[in-house]
Backbone:
């Protein structure tokens, strides 16, 4: 039986607040939020101020390199992509170029999601190699692959909800190309573990690994793994390494089956918003968790809803991260219940919120009078479907406007 919606007052004490979320979501998986992470704009700004774009450019591919750690804050709206880009460019000028390009991936993936909708959940184009269709094996989540490197990546993922991008690539390649798991199942599972889980960034990256959103599959070898920081893993490993060999040797071992082209993807474009009536309520959803969000400045009641239908599959640590964010937003009423029920109860007219490509959020509020306000964009450069099918094409189009005034020589 569905429980009636209830209003929540988040505890000011953080440990009590984390326990509070644990009680609200008793079936949420995984450990509490790691002490290494705390949600909210204050923590986001502290991390942003610590970013060194020059160090990032030099060391970003190393597991111990200068990763920014900004992705969970960008994903949940604690920071906007626009202010983040402006900050690093103002502080580092031409030396911000590499970081600017990497930040732009978030805008790129989001634009692809807006343009093609739920088609990103299926192959965007024919894979360039034969792919497997095996289900995600239980031993992955249990951390019993027998390979120290992969088990350690899974441990970090489940403990912290965050792993280095290079480790994400190695893991995805191992699961898709060595184990022949269906990339869609693997991507779905991986996203449910992430603190920074974003469907477009996650699923399109898995497609890039698989070669259904790139010109070739991504693979790696032991030399690559040790070069970028996996030496200690290899030293501890006691099994025959499946990654030993040259790229040519591994390619021949992994890709012997014929390529089977998937059916063409249906490119789904969201319908335009249809605002009606007089605005009466601001709905704060999980991409808007900042007290400085433009819609928080409206002289209207604001509400956030912990909807079990939307969030029960998220790890506990991510729900607690969101609670940290919301604790810095005292003007927002927080509810536990079904989105549609809560909004229908509180709204006396039109509901205002930020537009999103998340169809689950839109379906949760189906039938209500909602104005989906366009979110700020990183660049006004118009982009074709062709340009959105490769980041290199996107970057060639947007780089001039994003780096104007910066000397890149």
Residues:
């Amino acid at each position: 039986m569905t429980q009636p919606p209830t209003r929540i007052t988040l505890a000011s004490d953080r440990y009590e607040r984390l326990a509070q979320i644990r009680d609200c979501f008793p079936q949420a998986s995984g450990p509490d939020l790691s002490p290494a992470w705390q949600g909210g704009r204050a923590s986001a700004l502290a991390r942003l101020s610590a970013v060194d774009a020059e160090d990032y450019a030099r060391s970003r591919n190393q597991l111990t390199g200068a990763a920014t750690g900004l992705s969970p804050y960008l994903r949940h709206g604690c920071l906007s992509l626009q202010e983040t880009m402006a900050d690093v460019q103002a502080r580092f000028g031409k030396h911000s170029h590499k970081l600017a390009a990497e930040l732009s991936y978030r805008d790129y993936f989001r634009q692809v999601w807006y343009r093609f909708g739920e088609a990103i959940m299926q192959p965007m184009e024919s894979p360039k190699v034969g792919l497997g269709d095996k289900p995600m094996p239980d031993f992955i989540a249990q951390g019993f692959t027998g390979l120290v490197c992969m088990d350690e990546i899974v441990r970090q993922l489940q403990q912290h909800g965050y792993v280095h991008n290079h480790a994400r690539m190695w893991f995805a390649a191992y699961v898709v190309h060595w184990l022949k798991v269906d990339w869609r199942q693997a991507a779905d599972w991986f996203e449910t573990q992430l603190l920074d889980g974003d469907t477009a960034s996650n699923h399109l990256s898995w497609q890039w690994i698989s070669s259904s959103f790139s010109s070739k599959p991504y693979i790696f070898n032991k030399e690559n793994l040790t070069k970028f920081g996996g030496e200690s893993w290899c030293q501890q490993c006691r099994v025959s390494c499946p990654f030993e060999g040259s790229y040519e040797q591994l390619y021949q071992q992994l890709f012997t089956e014929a390529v089977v082209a998937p059916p063409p993807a249906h490119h789904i474009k969201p319908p335009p918003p249809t605002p009606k009536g007089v605005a009466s309520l601001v709905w704060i959803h999980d991409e808007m968790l900042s007290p400085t969000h433009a819609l928080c400045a409206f002289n209207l009641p604001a509400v956030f809803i912990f909807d079990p239908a939307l969030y029960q599959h998220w790890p506990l640590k991510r729900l607690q991260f969101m609670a940290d964010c919301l604790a810095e937003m005292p003007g927002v009423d927080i509810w536990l219940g079904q989105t549609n029920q809560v909004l229908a109860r509180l709204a006396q007219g039109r509901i205002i919120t930020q537009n999103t490509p998340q169809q689950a959020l839109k379906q949760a509020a189906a039938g209500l009078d909602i104005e989906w306000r366009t979110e700020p964009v990183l660049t006004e450069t118009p982009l074709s479907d062709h340009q959105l099918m490769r980041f290199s094409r996107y970057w060639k189009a947007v780089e001039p406007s994003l780096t104007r005034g910066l000397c890149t020589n």
The longest strand covers residues 279-283. Residues 17 and 23 are 10 Å apart (CA to CA).
